[in-house]
Amino acid sequence: MNGLEIDPFIAALPKVELHVHIEGTLTPALRWKLAHRNNIPLPYKTYEELLDSYKVTYNHRREVNGDNGAPTFLEAYFAGCQVLCTEEDFYELAMEYLEKAQSMNVRYTEPFFDTQAHTRRGIPAEAVLNGYLRAQRDGAVKYRVRSNWIFCFLRDESLEDGLEAYRAALPWARTSDGQGKGLFHAVGLASNEYNRPPMLFEEAFLLAKKDGLHVTMHCDVDQKDAVDHVHESIFQVCAGKGAQRIDHGLNALDREDLIPGLKSRGIGLTLCPHAYHRRQATETLFPKIRKLWDEGVKFCINSDDPTYMHNVWIDGNMMKAYHFCGFSKADMATIVKNAVEMSWADEETKGEILAELKGLVEAEK
Ligand code: HPA
Ligand code: ZN
């Protein structure tokens, strides 16, 4: 299930990742180690049993599919989060991700994180924020992977809870007053989308914009009301101006005003093909991605939650797009260019990655 062999050209591409949930990069090995370090009981007697637990097909939505005995993806993901307790744990998680990113030639990344999943377990927000901040700084030096992070509101928690978490985290942001520590420069959404449309968090988005942060909107695929969530993200949020990016958003294909809306507003999609490929047949899924391309919708390719998705990382996701959409090498380079342009990296970082990309493309000619 861990995808295709990575073509050397795909491996060599300098990469930008704009859709990865940091806790979705927690490897079973680190989970096992932290569980023992922090005395957190795991419902697995051996490491092999833990590994086997990743091989199940998650129940996509219990609200819709009923209970088949398997956990949902989010239940598995939040169960993994339990072992993260101290600043050092969050630091190690992030440093392992940045090391892995370097090995795949990721030059720049904007990981999603949240504090609410941790504070509700009694972990201080400072432990999360300081751990990631230290990794942001050390990872840029040690692994030469630069990062700007994205604070997520857990959308199945209340707006009030989210606002409180945001206010507590704000000293770690890169705010327009230049006062923050610079960990995160944007806000987004995470967790269960069922009956939780983006507009519920409009007050939080407006506040973040006032603080000088960017806004992206997670619209998972084939969820209940997915098309309405995409519509809100393009036309309604941020006082009608729309989000700057949409995470996933594949259901934009399902209503005729959405593709023109994405294009006219210049909103790009952060797609994660393997996440959809778990549930959609090859012949169904990849023509959809190809259609977005042919329609001129800007998108880039990302990994989502790689350790909970058969260990398929950004390179495996790019490989799937390359192989199953019939993209050329030049098309794949354009997809990387899209990621650079959709990112909120500084101009120097963008210029360096584009120059490296140009060099690689010219060497291929
Ligand atoms: N979907 C929704 N919320 C999430 C995910 C995801 O894949 N990962 C972490 N939070
Ligand atoms: Zn996601």
Can you describe this structure?
There is one protein chain. The protein has 365 residues and is of the alpha/beta class. The chain has one domain (15-359): TIM Barrel (Alpha-Beta Barrel). The chain is 48% helix and 11% strand. It contains 17 helices and ten strands. The protein has helices spanning 8-12, 28-37, 47-53, 62-65, 73-81, 87-103, 116-119, 125-142, 159-169, 202-210, 226-236, 258-265, 273-277, 282-295, 314-324, 329-342, 347-364; strands at 15-17, 106-109, 112-113, 146-147, 149-154, 184-190, 214-219, 245-248, 268-271, 299-301. Helix 11 packs parallel to helix 12. The longest helix has 18 residues, at 125-142. Zinc ion binds next to loops. Residues 21, 24, 77, 190-191, 218, 220, 304-305 line the site of hypoxanthine.
Query: Low-confidence segments, ≥5 residues, pLDDT <50?
Result: none
Strand content: 5-15%
Domain module count: 1
**Architecture per CATH nomenclature, i.e. the level-2 architecture:** Alpha-Beta Barrel
* CATH class placement: Alpha Beta
| The CATH homologous superfamily | Metal-dependent hydrolases
Structural class, from helix and strand content? Answer: alpha/beta
The number of helical segments is 17
User: Taking Cα atoms only, what radius of gyration do you get, to the nearest Å?
Assistant: 19 Å
N-to-C series of helices and strands: HEHHHHHEEHHEEHEHEHEHEHHEHHH
GO biological process, one term: hypoxanthine salvage
InterPro entries: A_deaminase_dom, Ado/ade_deaminase, Metal_Hydrolase
Protein name: Adenosine deaminase domain-containing protein
Organism: Talaromyces islandicus
